[in-house]
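thoughts on these tokens:
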Amino acid sequence: MILSMKILTLNCWGTNGPAERLPVLEAALRGTLVDLLLLQETPPGLPEKLSGNTRLTAPDAGLSIISRFPAESYEILTYAAQSPTEKIARELLLVRLKTDGGPFWAATTHLSWRPEEEPIRLAQMEELVSRAERLSGPVLVGGDFNAAPDQHSIRRLAAAGWRDLFAEREPNEAGITWDNRNPFIQGHSVRFPDRRIDLLFLRRRGSEALRVAAAEVVFDQAGPEGLHPSDHYGVTARLSAAR
């Protein structure tokens, strides 16, 4: 079983915002020292600047996975459920990693964003759950789900036997990742309340021997340049073998 693995999920906000934000984003990701990066809205060229034995992208959806563990196989699932209002493809990037504890499945995704499209998010989640059911061993998914834990789409994942890693480790913390105090959100044309929508889930079946050793929200403070890395905050979790 894996002795230790640190994971980060982050919506990178593409190339939006001031140009000087991108070096801040790159520096933040370089400084995390994680074993597995699950990215959404990845700026072009960013994965090549980050170290890892695995660098995978789903360019139509802006998804990336960078890991120190080598990939044994990967696939891109394009959801059948797509928003008629969006030009971006909504997909799941899934990889089987070779780790010191055996094979480990990891995925990143970015679900439809409009508040009224919760039925579409729920349908996308059903496809995610269905695909994962055919996999053996630990399966982890991280991403920008555009839904808070109390919404139907996220509750569907919990009902299917997935562990919300941040909530499991920090049950009394809000863990806000969409924060209206972030200056980059101030300029958005559509406003949302503060929410925890950037999530890490581990399927319970196959992960019984893994515990959440730590979990936290990161990149919630501006750097020395006075800039945040993104309009989202990131979430990290550390898994370790249960004792």
Observations:
- The domain at 4-241 is CATH 3.60.10.10 (Deoxyribonuclease I; Chain A).
- The mean pLDDT is 95.
